[in-house]
Design goal:
Blueprint: E1 2-6, H1 20-34, E2 38-43, E3 52-55, E4 71-74, H2 79-88, E5 91-94, H3 103-109, E6 119-121, H4 124-132, E7 138-140, E8 157-161, H5 170-180, E9 183-187, H6 193-200, E10 207-211, H7 215-224, E11 227-229, H8 240-246, E12 251-254, H9 259-262, E13 269-272, H10 275-284, H11 290-297, H12 302-319
Parallel strand pairs: 1-2, 1-4, 2-3, 4-5, 5-6, 6-7, 8-9, 8-11, 9-10, 11-12, 12-13
Helix pairs in contact: 1-12, 5-10, 8-11
Length: 320
């Protein structure tokens, strides 16, 4: 199959640091090539892949090239990409992010034009929500992850990697660290400096911010952590869950969004409903068997994910 992957332009594919979508596109593109498909990756200048890489800055630069492909896999769910691609090409669009981020796409594409786009989403609850909105062509495919180095030996700290902003619930992580008297290591990009300074001012020297980290550093922090934390509500996926699990590290997260699909409570992590529950679960986290975590991560191998995407591509081609 001749496949075009259109990656987000926020950073290179794969990213040098933060960039979950670009990391997913990189893993998927490489795996599709390994499965003997002809893949072209459209991405930011400086990107690299097993696929042919063509740098671009806007859709108009590559528009006429796209007619050469059997399927277009679009990873940029904004109207100026999704609408023309849906109308003129066999296109699958993966929604990387919160559904609230895509309201403009939904209202401009589906309602006035009565177009049925082909969407892939990252958890089953989003599938149901979109179908309730009248969308018919919606599939769930989990994100692939690159497995890290496994270890059963853990150190006494909690770990978070991602954006430092209120939506991610960093203030709750700081509070949890104080409640449990456990060190908290935060890695990522500070999106709200005032918020960060406010919540860490009285952190009892329990919080350490290490900034944006590379893959080698991430591997070490995740592998050695007592557990990886999530505090955001309605998380659409969370690459950190299988990434942590592949290193034998459990995840502690709210019982909302995609987390109940990714975490088998008591097997590869724990789910909670409030901070008091989370506090008690931190004290129990060493009861999770690292081998269970590794087993849970197997569902997110790139080959399995690529195979599921190929099934979606075939369904799209058959119905057109």
């Amino acid at each position: 199959m001749k496949i075009a992957q259109i990656s987000s332009l926020g950073t290179t594919t794969p990213p040098k640091g933060y960039g979950g979508t670009q990391r997913v596109v990189s893993l998927l593109s490489n795996e599709l090539v390994s499965m003997n498909h002809e893949v072209t990756l459209y991405a930011k200048k400086g990107s690299y892949s097993k696929a042919e890489v063509i740098p671009y800055q806007k859709l108009s630069q590559i528009w006429f090239q796209l007619k050469e492909f059997d399927i277009i896999h679009n990873h940029i769910a904004i109207p100026q990409f999704t609408i023309p691609l849906t109308l003129f090409y066999h296109t699958v669009t993966t929604l990387h992010g919160w559904i609230s981020d895509f309201r403009t796409v939904f209202t401009q594409l589906m309602i006035p034009r009565m177009v049925q786009p082909n969407f892939v989403v990252l958890n089953d609850s989003i599938v149901q929500r979109l179908k309730n909105m009248g969308l018919k062509n919606v599939w769930r495919v989990y994100n692939p992850v690159e497995f890290g180095s496994f270890s059963e030996e853990k150190k006494d700290y909690l770990f978070y990697i991602g954006r430092i902003e209120r939506k991610k619930g960093i203030h709750k992580m700081v509070e949890l660290a104080k409640l449990t008297k456990t060190r908290l290591i935060l890695a990522g990009i500070i999106k709200d400096q005032d918020y960060f300074e406010k919540i860490t001012t009285n952190s009892q020297n329990l919080v350490k911010f290490v900034g944006e980290i590379n893959e080698k550093e991430k591997d070490k922090f995740m592998r050695e952590a007592k557990c990886v934390l999530c505090m955001s509500e309605d998380e659409p996926f969370g690459l950190f869950v299988p990434e942590a699990n592949s290193r034998g590290t459990p995840v502690l997260a709210p019982a909302s969004g995609s987390m109940p699909e990714l975490i088998n409570n008591g097997y590869n992590g724990y789910l909670f409903y409030n901070l008091n529950e989370a506090k008690n679960l931190v004290r129990m986290i060493n009861q999770i068997d690292p081998e269970n975590c590794l087993h849970a991560a197997e569902n997110f191998r790139p080959k399995k994910v690529a195979t599921e995407y190929l099934e979606v591509y075939k369904k799209v081609l058959l119905k057109n």
